[in-house]
Known about the structure:
The chain is α+β, with helices and mostly antiparallel strands. The protein has 24 helices and 13 strands.
Amino acid sequence: xxxxxxxxxxxxxxxxxxxxxxxxxxxxxxxxxxxxxxxxxxxxxxxxxxxxxxxxxxxxxxxxxxxxxxxxxxxxxxxxxxxxxxxxxxxxxxxxxxxxxxxxxxxxxxxxxxxxxxxxxxxxxxxxxxxxxxxxxxxxxxxxxxxxxxxxxxxxxxxxxxxxxxxxxxxxxxxxxxxxxxxxxxxxxxxxxxxxxxxxxxxxxxxxxxxxxxxxxxxxxxxxxxxxxxxxxxxxxxxxxxxxxxxxxxxxxxxxxxxxxxxxxxxxxxxxxxxxxxxxxxxxxxxxxxxxxxxxxxxxxxxxxxxxxxxxxxxxxxxxxxxxxxxxxxxxxxxxxxxxxxxxxxxxxxxxxxxxxxxxxxxxxxxxxxxxxxxxxxxxxxxxxxxxxxxxxxxxxxxxxxxxxxxxxxxxxxxxxxxxxxxxxxxxxxxxxxxxxxxxxxxxxxxxxxxxxxxxxxxxxxxxxxxxxxxxxxxxxxxxxxxxxxxxxxxxxxxxxxxxxxxxxxxxxxxxxxxxxxxxxxxxxxxxxxxxxxxxxxxxxxxxxxxxxxxxxxxxxxxxxxxxxxxxxxxxxxxxxxxxxxxxxxxxxxxxxxxxxxxxxxxxxxxxxxxxxxxxxxxxxxxxxxxxxxxxxxxxxxxxxxxxxxxxxxxxxxxxxxxxxxxxxxxxxxxxxxxxxxxxxxxxxxxxxxxxxxxxxxxxxxxxxxxxxxxxxxxxxxxxxxxxxxxxxxxxxxxxxxxxxxxxxxxxx
Length: 749
């Protein structure tokens, strides 16, 4: 950091010129990033369900229905989809859909006269179609014809639903949510920064770095999206992280710079000392966040991996802005940083500060504090034990969205889930037209249609309900075979596909005896396989996070106990956060106030992704506090004095940073897409619990109980830390230890 500081001081104007030049380049190149982000990536490419989908496409040129048109008969309450005028309009819509480019396997109630395609009251019926390709191809194809299937005139009304329409509307709504979040968070953040710093100039610096980080985020996402799939949700989340972390890091740097100026150093020396202390801490903190996010790479799902690529890039961008661009700006401003002061914050003597007195109060009764706060966090975390993981559907959108109206109507009025059919695909190739194979398929379809939770089975030999062949093969049955390529069957469930009952149906079908080897695909199968993939890799991800965080903290403080304590407290903090999310978003408490529809589940990927992000952010504040405590220990203070002084020096900064970061995330909690809302609420809770309960309460209590053992390490590890530890090899620039220390009532050891 000393060499970086000298470079920034010598080349301050060059650094600022390059930063200013970077802004329009990032805006131009990254401005269209939305067009390059993916709507999918939720499936494990190596799973049975994914392989079943690829077999359907390669052998039979088909797949599960992903286009749904809901047709409703208009007129009197007795109007029915069987009325001649309604039937004619429905058949015309089906014919039009079959003629759309890229749409295939179109069928309808009027073609099959299958009861599951007709609503229970007889006023609505379904047209189904299939668009080949991944989620992005389906989304783009659906967007090209979606408007033509919003019908309000004539004997029927119609609306378009299905996976493609859901992907498209989620993407559009996520973009609107991002703009709303930015418009809400920026003014509040500016006001809070002015209150923290008391100066408009000082308050503007973190926002300037935040703008640099956000535009840099767009550019990072654009580059990453050119190399691999990046989820559309990454845009909202990583933009919020970029802005929040840039403000966090800048707050820490600017506060330390002003502290060095008050200590009597000239601006250049203040910049150098700031980088050697706060700058080193910011760099280390950014590294811990990146390590947590990089753990997502162990999962095979592109959705999670995209957050690792994008998140690491975003954190790096925010850190570079804070430890390279911001110091150059501070060197140019110098003492003018306090211009346009609205009020002057007069620092008190250390022993008179609020956070010093709080730390001393906590350390006087450490056992009581530990028991009380830990018990409270455990109670908050209890709901997490009954988490029910699922996948998101159209209900992540507000009730006014057209695809949400279609989904609600199908759930309420239809006995089966036509668009969520399971595909049972033969893995071996054979001629399905031979009598022996025809008999096999017939017996297999009858057996599957008699299983609990099955509404209908469609096969090459006909259409089956309740163990019986109710309709023989027709023109639509041809799609279930291909000459010499085998056969496949479609199982339409009568249960909610993304539910425990839907998962149970998948497992039952997979265990059922089959006349030939099969793979089972579909929405429910994807959920089962996704959970299995997460369960297989989760121990590895958690182990990597724990090990790497332990090693990094040891390299920073040279202690064995402090890293273990940090890991345990982070887990305690996050368990409370997860419990609160289950209580709210799964169980539905405060659903009216937060404007979302509870489905009884939490998206299966949310806890994993939230853990990696929140763990990194929580470790952020741990690093801020520990670095200052270690600095005081190295200056000769006792353990208790170092903890109290360290909390006094960082308590105001950490809590202010947490409030600012929470403002950014709470703005995302106002999103209309429930997935984004969950992350906004979850991360806001995580940073606030961590800053106010963990760092300001449990950390000083535990460090008081451990005493000198906090800094223990075997002699061999101490030598290792002295040689390889993350600390300045050279002392701070012309530091006089006696000058640097503040008066303390406690004697040094």
